[in-house]
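hey
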């Protein structure tokens, strides 16, 4: 069943477009930085990874993760998860799919597995494309951090992989909410909009310091915690909090998805 779902998604033009966007955007950013040259910002507390993007290929990957990741990856996640079930309902094929000798739970699991796999591929494409393009444009050199320290290229590459996996897991709440709405809706647009709306509302509320400790419960609050992998001293405390934070969203909304889908009246 999972193999069938993979085949359906891999053969779709939309999948190629979304994954192509994940690979193409970092490459485009690299070309822009190569043409414009290194930013003229002085080193200091306000400096970020984007200001150091031209220092090495790994620096380019960090700049892409910090900017392209949080802006574009949530859109891809919302589209993939939000269309998983609602799209079948909209096409009037959901009832026919469930005529096969499989349980609704197994059908739901196969859809979710494909979504998770494609989200992981999308996140890895951001890093892989930016590292490759960055190496061609800026070479294989140690990574410079905003704090003024350097990390060897080999160690930095490993941390980029960890940061990428962390960012992919950071999309779990968005995927879970979109997937739940996809189960309850008959059109993918509302499910996609719900996931993207969650990101916008969460980031908006997170920008208000008056929210206090409530901000720590927002699904996007720890998205940039991977930057601590390149801090001095290295710290993963916020990353652990970010990993744990996603779990309740996943458990609640996937449980609701399973409960709702088991009881959903599917006529066609």
């Amino acid at each position: 069943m999972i193999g069938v779902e993979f085949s359906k998604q891999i053969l779709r033009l939309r999948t190629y477009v979304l994954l192509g966007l994940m690979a193409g955007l970092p490459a485009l950013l690299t070309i822009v930085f190569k043409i414009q040259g290194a930013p003229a910002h002085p080193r200091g507390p306000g400096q970020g990874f984007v200001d150091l993007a031209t220092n090495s290929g790994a620096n380019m990957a960090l700049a892409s993760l910090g900017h392209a990741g949080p802006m574009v990856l949530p859109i891809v996640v919302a589209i993939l998860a939000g269309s998983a079930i609602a799209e079948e309902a909209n096409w009037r094929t959901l009832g026919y799919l469930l005529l096969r000798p499989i349980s609704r739970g197994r059908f739901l699991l196969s859809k979710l597995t494909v979504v998770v796999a494609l989200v992981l591929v999308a996140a890895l494409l951001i890093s892989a494309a930016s590292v490759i393009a960055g190496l061609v444009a800026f070479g294989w050199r140690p990574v410079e951090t905003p704090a003024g320290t350097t990390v060897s290229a080999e160690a930095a590459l490993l941390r980029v992989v960890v940061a990428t996996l962390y960012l992919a897991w950071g999309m779990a709440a968005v995927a879970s909410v979109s997937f739940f709405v996809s189960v309850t809706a008959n059109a993918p647009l509302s499910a996609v909009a719900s996931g993207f709306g969650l990101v916008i509302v969460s980031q908006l509320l997170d920008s208000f310091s008056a929210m206090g400790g409530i901000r720590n419960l927002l699904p996007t609050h720890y998205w940039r915690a991977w930057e601590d992998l390149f801090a001095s001293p290295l710290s993963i405390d916020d990353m652990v909090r970010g990993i744990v934070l996603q779990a309740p969203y996943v458990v609640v909304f996937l449980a609701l998805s399973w409960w709702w889908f088991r009881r959903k009246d599917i006529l066609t």
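The chain has ten helices and two strands. The first strand starts at residue 143 and ends at 144.
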